[in-house]
Amino acid sequence: MTVTITAFDRSPDGGKGLARDTRVRWALEEVGQPYEVRLVSFAALKEPAHLALNPFGQIPTYEEDGLVLFETGAIVLHVAETRDGLLPMDPAARARAIAWMFAAVNTVEPPILDLSIARLQERDRPWAAGRLPLVEERVRTRLRQLSARLGDADWLDGDFTAGDLMMVSVLLRLRSSGLLDEFPRLSAYVARGEARPAYRRAFADQLAVNTRP
């Protein structure tokens, strides 16, 4: 059974692990599933062949034995549900882990992405100086809530799960902003995620693509 994912041939982040294929690579590494990567250019994202896999012209996509998936959360959930290692066996714990996956992409990530847009794309707008503090405070609100829930635990709900994988991946987007440093528990939480051998392999593979001649 061959798994193939798509990824940027040159990621906008230069291989820092922020492109969403890193999340899928990490999940596949955690469960020990070999996979192939088909690299695509920005131009290829809008071509019919890729749009047949992802109608929105994005990466990653996932192909396995006739199954085609898009959306990172859906892909990671499929990997977690069909292999051992990312979801607990206990039904209640399993449901909670999935809830944390949704929380990562639906509750925590949107204000973080809004912050990136405010800092990178809107900084020269006349209203940017007034908007940025409001966006930063929305991010801090989510981080305060998440930090309070995590407490002194290593992971969000017992052992490491797909919920932690998605949450750490989302929080990594904050590193350059400095906001994560204001929350030591979350900084340590992200560091634990990055220290996992599966993450290191996923990161190294993506970095290798972006640093090749």
Kindly list the characteristics that best describe this protein.
globular, Glutathione S-transferase Yfyf (Class Pi), Chain A, domain 2, alpha+beta, 213 residues, four-stranded mixed beta sheet, Glutaredoxin
Can you put this structure into words, describing what you see?
The chain has 213 residues and is an alpha+beta fold. The longest helix is centred in the middle third of the chain and has 30 residues, at 91-120. It has a 4-stranded mixed sheet, covered by helices on one side. The chain has 8 helices and 4 strands. It has helices at residues 21-31, 48-51, 72-82, 91-120, 128-150, 162-171, 184-195, 197-210; strands spanning 3-8, 36-40, 61-64, 67-70. It folds into 2 domains: 3-85 and 198-210, Glutaredoxin (3-Layer(aba) Sandwich), CATH 3.40.30; 91-196, Glutathione S-transferase Yfyf (Class Pi), Chain A, domain 2. The model has no long low-confidence stretch (mean pLDDT 92).
